[in-house]
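Issue 218. Parser rejects a valid record. Input:
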Amino acid sequence: MRKTTVALVLLGVWVVGAQSTLASVTQGDLFYTVYSGFNRVKKVSYNFDGSTFSLGTPTVLASGIGADGIAGNPNDANSVLVAGQGSGLLHRVSRSGGGVLQSAGTISNAFHLEVADSSTLYVSGIPGALGRVALNGDGSIGATTSIAVSGSNTDVTQIITTPSGDFYTRSFSGGNGTFGTISFSGTSATTTALLTSLPAAHGGVYDPFTNTIILMGDNHLTQVSLGGVILADLTISGARFDQGTVDGKGHLFAASNTGGLMFMDYAAATGGLIDDAGNFSSMLFLEDYLDDIAPLVGAGTTDPVIPEPSTLVIWSLLAVLGIAT
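Output the parser choked on:
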């Protein structure tokens, strides 16, 4: 066996250990909204060192506008997209504190958002009409096309895009509603209910780490398979979950209208289940009227792609050994 091969084998053994040690650690910025008050769009730093979760001091990004759903702008790393509630507006807000950069008319009640890809954003009510917003390559907001919804439900709350198709929730602000699939064809869409009378069927996010969907609503967090089977369910006393996100590395961030931010580390959980007894979780008060947390993974992410610490070390060692390509 050549020396370089031996080095790679030994390095591979070290990498496994390094990844298991570093998998839980995470830090960055969360972009979020509050549904009432004057200062509606903000960001806050977070840090999880493997045993303690903490938040920094929030920074105001936009004031005096309606704000509910929030997502990163796939064509402009310097702005986020914010649903304007009953104003029917979609706002493009500077990430660096420059305020509102653009406001464009969309459906009459714009609450929840889902960035499907770099050119498409869905905006919906709670529950209400559904619109498809064009996202322009220069980062600006384009025209909105109304989508006629039929099937099990004729209005929706949240669209959830996955590699295996699209899903939806249908409920009012307190949760307790329907979860199912939604298929699009031009300017129409058909819904097929999979689960009904589900407390968590309000906000929802696809989790690439587990290939499942995590729903949030009422005081429940519910993990379901892409086939509509409930895999795990948690009841959090005093919470009223609205929307949230995952980071694709085994961490969940869920916003409660009571002001609490629920953080969970399920990276090492058996089967990746959110109800595993070994999971770390923390509910910290962030702000009254807390509504949504922008995605940290997917087309609408606000989190830049940065290699894991172990990956950086691997390439450094390979360079030293002279075997990196």
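Fixed in the parser; the record now loads. Residues 1-23, 307-325 have pLDDT under 50 and may be disordered.
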